[in-house]
Amino acid sequence: MPVHVQPRATxxxxxxxxxTLGATGIAVAFGDLLPPAHASDITGAAxxxxxxNAWVTIAADGTVSLICPAVEMGQGVQTALPLLIAEDMDADxxxxxxxxxxxxxxxxxxxxxxxxxxxxxxxxxRGYYQLLRLAxxxxxxxxxxxxxxxxxxxxxxxxxxPGRVVHARSGRSLGYGEIAATGMLPDPLPxxxxxxxxxxxxxxxxxxxxxxxxxxxxxxxxxxxFGIDVDLPGMLxxxxxxxxxxxxxxxxxxxxxxxxxxxxxxxxxxxxxxGVIGESTDAARRAKEALVVTWSTTSRVRRxxxxxxxETYRDVGRDLAQPGVPARxxxxxxxxxxxxxxxxxxxxxxxxxxxxxxxxMNATALVSGDLVEIWAPTQxxxxxxxxxxxxxxxxxxKVKVHTTLIGGGFGRRAExxxxxxxxxxxxxxxxxxxxxTWSREDxxxxxxxxPLAAQHVEVGLDEAGNIVGWRHRVVADSxxxxxxxxxxxxxxxxDTVVTDGTLFNYRxxxxxxxxxxxxxxxxxxxWRAVGYGQNNFGVExxxxxxxxxxxxxxxxxxxxxxxxxxxxxxxxEAVARMAEWERPREGRALGxxxxxxxxxxxxxxxxxxLDRESGExxxxxxxxxxxxxxxxQPRNIEAQIVGAILFGAxxxxxxxxxxxxxxxQETNFDTYRILRMSEMPRIHVQVTPTPENKPAGIxxxxxxxxxxxxxxxxxxxxxxxxxxxxPFLPERVKAALAG
Length: 739
What we know:
With about 750 residues, the chain is α+β, with helices and mostly antiparallel strands.
């Protein structure tokens, strides 16, 4: 079904106001607030005129339209976030329609991301939780006050049930639609505070397993609208030939053959490549392939060789004379290690990995003078406004972003390149929209990969085997130096996202974490779980080495080091029971790992076997226990954990991007190896909520423990052979076995 959205103005009237909800301000408008400019195609646009605040619109037939401020990319937020509003306003979920928020950070920005619209970092539920529940509670108070006026009874005598206000004493009630039809608004308008939120024992929707995700039916029947599905009247299609080495420019373009392709409208030189505009995607791609380009040879990235740099980074980590930027300094870790009875030293390397989203990068742009419209599967509408404005030579306030469903994000769709492509080509044909779709080869070869990284870990033990000091050095390029340069500078050159996962809950008396930045001019980016995904490898594998050195069980050691952390201990104890940790296995072994990423607690046990001749590792089962704090949607949490576990197993066993002389060697899934269906382990997930705690981040928590658990299982299976380089390719495994 085509997506064609006509822009609509949203003027604010004299009835616009600001309602304070606790410590949070929400801009709200009544009466003449128009529906959002772009509604989710899953559920349609907002309907009705009764808008208690910026998040809720109620129609006379009782339909409740709720805004979803985060982007749906398979993680379930288009259900979970509106559910929070519905809970505290006592909406009838069967009458709820969900609308994707327009690009308006002033109304819909995430408090967890400094008020911008960005979906990532497992921050959606964490960031919006309180705000959306307060919006729901404020809506309920508006409805109660309006009903009290109409029924001529005190507000204190009224209660709500799903979709209705009830006056038990007289037996009368009003549906939300009946209240909306009158347009009656209380004066003064009620405010909401935390005291107005429902207690957990009164929740109707939060924590229930029978609330289905609203995005699933359309994805099953094929009506779901992703960015790649956008179809606008008069639309043209674009493709971009990018320089094989980042930073190079086209020095000479021979486009004679490309211009002979039927349906080609224009060939466009770009700062980083050559764009083609045509009447179809196929024509644009065929013309792109016919281009003959001589590239410049000045880029510093031409010296980039990932295999060589991996060894260099490892050496840098070992060179303790080279100082790093401290991320944590508790006690005197170097001194404690120097005086230790025994020191465990280990180095870990993690290769570049690609996002490998099922929907390739794409965006559609329409440029009309200084106005720009974007239709895109973007994780960051606010950033997209900035990217598009820079490309079009206008200001962000003149850019409107229509956010579609996303066919996989994992951090990749927070970037600017696919947005810039569409805008630069659309400028060439002003007044006509242009959709640019990357090929799979474009996607694989021109990604913003997880950084190549090395970790150097030193742990000092006393005579009894107790940890006296832990030193952890992370050597990698910086994501923040490129994406958030001011934050990077203000933190003194520390990249906090790259060092995530080293600042653990384990109780050690002296702990030093250092970051040593490498700058080799290659753009690297956010990848699912980011620093936790790489650094948990070093932490959890080193802990197993400490357990072996002490002669204690890995479960017991972690429980000891997590004393005073009952949630952490709970998930470790529970997963050990699930996996029957003490039961001997014939030809197989179990490995354990734990993480406290994104304010959640997650422990995993894997069961593996190993073909010593081929070096192939097979993961048979994964058991996982996760404490998410409040479990807004327990069944969806299980689904997210399963997906993250598969993601984690895939990158630990197979995934790698190799760069030689600046050029990526992988091109498609035939060369970029991912976990196949036949290799999927059985996965067993148990969610153990703690409702007294706020919701934790869930979209990424399942990934970090998988790899170290596999490595720890291999060590137990082989009598101590340690795998220290992601991915665990067969040749690397055989080299480790050979000693």
